[in-house]
Amino acid sequence: MAFQNHVELVNQAVQGLADTAPSDWRKIVFYLEFLEDEEIGLRNKYTGRVFGGENFDVPLSNYGIGGSLETFEPIEEIYLNAAQNGDRWTGILLTLFSDGQFKCRFYYENSPLLYEDDDMLEKIIFEGVSDSPR
Q1: I want to staple 81 with a disulfide (CB 3.0 to 4.6 A). Which of 1, 51, 98, 99 is the partner?
Q2: What is the mean pLDDT of each run of 10 residues along the chain (134 residues)?
């Protein structure tokens, strides 16, 4: 996949997250996993947190953030294109900041969300929580 196409897809996913966030958000931490299963096909699951205002720290599910096709489809396309080229990552962490900056990390080792490894998942989410803009 051309690098520019990859960047455009990440930007689409980031915009999808921002569009579904509450108006006073300051940071969104979004983690999505994919796992290929021979019987059911491509499995996925996501989680994250939204931060803003005073003491504003809520799960994404409280706002439906990340569940939109505008977020999911570009990330799935990145995953499928990467897998075709032998790059088999299992998770992606997006950290968005209200000033328009974002950070993106790929994970290759585990599927803590799908396999319910709470300790590993907590470490990944903490990476996004501790991120700061450049």
Answers
A1: 1
A2: 72 89 86 84 82 66 68 89 87 93 91 88 90 86
